[in-house]
Specification:
This is Putative RNA polymerase ECF-type sigma factor. With about 170 residues, this protein is an all-alpha fold. The protein contains eight helices and no strands.
């Protein structure tokens, strides 16, 4: 899809996506962010949008999942301080730093994966899409998505273990 046509479609879909996001999130700022993220994802898929029967349906599914992910994140953040301490077990700062460094290494390894594996891994684990939805979004089959997920996970694990041995 060309840039001009994408902009026209995005402007047309935006009000409906925003209304839906507000219903989910009950916060216009959060809804605005979710819609912006959804349109950004569509922008990255713009070369393949002509393959879909309904770009509107795709936009709705993406927006819905982004809203749900935001709600999950909000639920996690709304924990009382006392309850948070008991859940976290008073984790020490050193362990927290190690976990953050490990996460950064994992994200760097993910960045080295082939584009398709990288996209599928991010959709599954960071955005919460199901395998069937990823297959539809990528124009692939669920079996191919599972295979790519498996290969991506294996590669991330191998590279992470190699990096961990180097530091130890």
């Amino acid at each position: 899809m060309e840039q001009n046509r994408f902009e026209i479609e995005a402007k047309r879909m935006r009000p409906a996506l925003l209304r839906m996001a507000i219903r989910y999130l009950e916060n216009s700022d959060e809804a605005e962010d979710a819609v912006q993220d959804a349109l950004l994802k569509l922008w990255f898929l713009r070369d393949r949008l002509d393959q879909y029967r309904s770009v509107d349906a795709l936009a709705i599914v993406i927006t819905k999942h982004l809203c749900i992910n935001r709600l999950r994140g909000t639920r996690i953040e709304k924990v009382d301080l006392e309850q948070g301490i008991s859940i976290g077990g008073g984790e020490n700062p050193e362990m927290k730093l190690v976990e953050e460094e490990n996460m950064q290494e994992i994200l760097e390894v993910i960045g080295t994966l082939p584009d398709l594996q990288q996209s599928i891994l991010r959709m599954k684990h960071l955005e919460g899409f199901e395998v069937e939805e990823i297959a539809r979004l990528t124009g692939s089959t669920p079996v191919a998505v599972r295979t790519n997920l498996s290969r991506a996970r294996k590669r991330v694990k191998e590279q992470f273990m190699i990096h961990s041995k180097v530091w130890n």
